Amino acid sequence: MASARTSVYALLLALLAGMVVAVVYLARLGEGAEPSADVQTLAPGLPGVNPDAPGVSLKLRCRENLCVYVTPTGEEKGRVVPTKIWPVAAHGLARVLVNGKYGYIDAEGNEAIPLRYAYAGDFEANGLARVALTGRNGWINTRGHAVIPLRYDEAAWTFDAHGLARVRRNGKHGWINPQGEEVIPLQYDWADNFDAEGRAMVEKAGKYGYINITGETIIRLEFDEIRSFDSRGMAAARVNGRYGWIDKKGEVVIPTRFDGIGLHGFDGGLALVRVGGKWGYIDISGKEVIPPRYDAAKDFGRYGLAKVNQGGVLNGQSIQGGKTGWVNGKGVEVIPLRFDWTDDFGENGLACVNVGGALGSNGDIQGGKWGYINTQGGEIIPLEFTEILKFDASGLAALKSEEGKWGWFSASGRVTPQRFDAVFPFHGKLRLARVQVWDKWGVVNTQGEEIVPARFDLLDEFGHHDLARMRINGRYGYINTRGEEVIPPTFDEARPFGVDGFARVRTGEQWQTINTQGEIVN
Predict the structure, then answer these.
(1) Long-range pairs of 459-465 with CB within 8 A, sequence gap ≥ 24
(2) pTM (2 decimals)?
(3) Closest by Cα among 279, 231, 273 to 254
(4) Sign of CA dihedral 76, 81, 83, 89
(5) Is 518 left (phi over 0), alpha (psi -120 to 50) or beta?
(6) 446-462 confidence digits (pLDDT tens)
(7) CB 123 within 8 A of CB 90
(8) Could you tell me which residues are beta bridge partners of residue 388?
């Protein structure tokens, strides 16, 4: 009887253990990502499986841009293309994102921490990584254990140079150390991160000040607003609707007497201020250098110039209406106020300008003539074009002539003939651009030379593996960067090639997968 009773108990325990395994499996599965179709067929729910749960042994293995699920014996059970794999970080682990869930793999591509998080950061030198799950944030170690529990509503991306991380719970901000100790209590309604000098701006009950890394208040919480400290060690502050400046000790060095100020303080040498509805500029002592006489103005920029305007308004950081030009630090209008719209000067020393245009209902400038000027006001590209685009990565910008044809120009003023009906920016390492002549598409290089004649009804950008999908006479195929039809147009429908070197194509009702040689692989 004792032996029979023992057998019954053993059977009940086995059934109970199986139920526990199933519950754990389903719970883990609920936390995971939705698997792709091929994985779902071969191994349902793989991205959500906890490999440490009893009876569950499938793990992720990634090679370049393809991941597979394998058994302990190395048998593959399904493949999935990851959304992204990051480089290996500290402690030899790399983040991987598959179907909206984050996990970690080791340097050999083997799963180290299962895909289960809504967000996961890189592992830091302290051996911790920030993760998020069901709206809560915490930190795990390289074994996947929650060293700092996932209990915070918000958390800094990483621990800072002072070994602290800002966190928020129940609406209050504070700081923790890598041991999870709340070293600065969660007591502030808002808080910024600590800067390199160990200062952090904080707010409580609508008043702003600064604390140091020990939590000591170094600038009293008595200001309605404080801007960041600029390169001169000055921070704009507001009290009762008026702006002034304080130093790093919290001392008011320029009284709060201005109705408005610019964004960048004294970084450009002079600070933009508004008095009685007009804009001007002061120096670091508070002395008026350029009297407040402009209806709208911007901060001084990289070339020692500031954009000023008469007759318009400053809407956010955009000047609208009126006439705009530029002044230097002495208040001299070195570029006359004659433009109806202007962009800022770019790294190449040029600014896009418009004369004769008007603000449209969508916020864009309609009509007028477009061109580019340099910092002396010289017209590098004459104001005679109906449309101009910004410079792209190739160092060229597209322009449209009065005849409605497009070409390009360089920062030196070199202009290619305007002969295309539509153009796209230059793209990729070969710097190629798609163009349209009538209703046909081709490709040009940065010299404006057609390296792929405009003969296709549809043409994509060159993507993965330097192949572009095209359509001609109602059929799809693929060309290389020399315009050669490496995969002839024989398909009724096609998709671009992915990073894995495969593309989906359809002939009749049948969808198939091809490789970059056009061979069917399934």
Answers:
(1) 459/434, 460/496, 461/424, 461/427, 461/428, 461/434, 462/427, 462/428, 462/430, 462/432, 463/496, 463/497, 464/496, 464/497, 464/498, 464/499, 464/501, 465/497, 465/501, 465/516
(2) 0.70
(3) 273
(4) positive
(5) left
(6) 988 899 999 999 999 99
(7) yes
(8) 399
Are 102 and 133 in contact by the 8 Å Cβ rule? The answer is: no
**Alpha carbon distance 460, 498 (integer Å):** 13
Q: Hey, what are 300's tokens?
A: 């001084």
| Residue 308 neighbours by CB under 8 Å, 6+ apart | 279, 294, 296, 297, 298, 324, 325, 326, 327, 333, 337
DSSP string over 140-195: E-TTS-EEEEEEESEE-SS--TTS-EEEEETTEEEEE-TT---SEEEEESEEPPP-
Residues facing 406 on adjacent strands? 400, 420
Pairing of strands 59-63, 66-70: antiparallel
Is residue 506 pLDDT above 90, yes or no? yes
Please tell me the number of Cα atoms within 13 Å of 505 on its side-chain side: 26
Give dist(CA 338, CA 354) in Å, integer.
Answer: 9
Quick one: three-class SS letters along 31-66?
A: HCCCCCHHHHHHCCCHHHCCCCCCCCCCEEEEECCE
The one-character DSSP state at 415 is: B
Structure tokens at 34: 């939705």
Question: Could you tell me whether strands 190-191 and 199-204 are parallel, antiparallel, or unpaired per DSSP bridges?
Answer: antiparallel
Write 130-136 long-range contacts (CB < 8 A, 24+): 130/155, 130/156, 130/157, 130/158, 130/165, 131/102, 133/31
Lateral strand order in the sheet of 146-152 = 119-120, 129-133, 136-140, 146-152
Cβ 322 vs Cβ 295: under 8 Å: yes
The CA distances from residue 377 to 214, 280, 349, 443, in Å, are: 52, 22, 11, 35
Closest CA to 356 of 389, 327, 376, 385: 385
* pLDDT, tens only, 247-259: 999 999 999 999 9
Half-sphere exposure of 85 (CA within 13 A, CB side): 23
**What distance in Å separates the CA atoms of residue 338 and residue 297, rounded to the nearest whole number?**
14
Q: Max Cα separation, the chain?
A: 108
Write down the pLDDT at residue 45. 43
Are 103 and 120 contacting, i.e. CB atoms less than 8 angstroms apart?
yes
Tokens of 364: 């864009």
Residue 392 to residue 104: CA distance in whole angstroms: 36
Indicate the helix (H) or strand (E) that contains 469: strand 468-472
Q: What is the DSSP letter of 377?
A: -
Tens of pLDDT, residues 86-101: 999 989 999 999 989 9
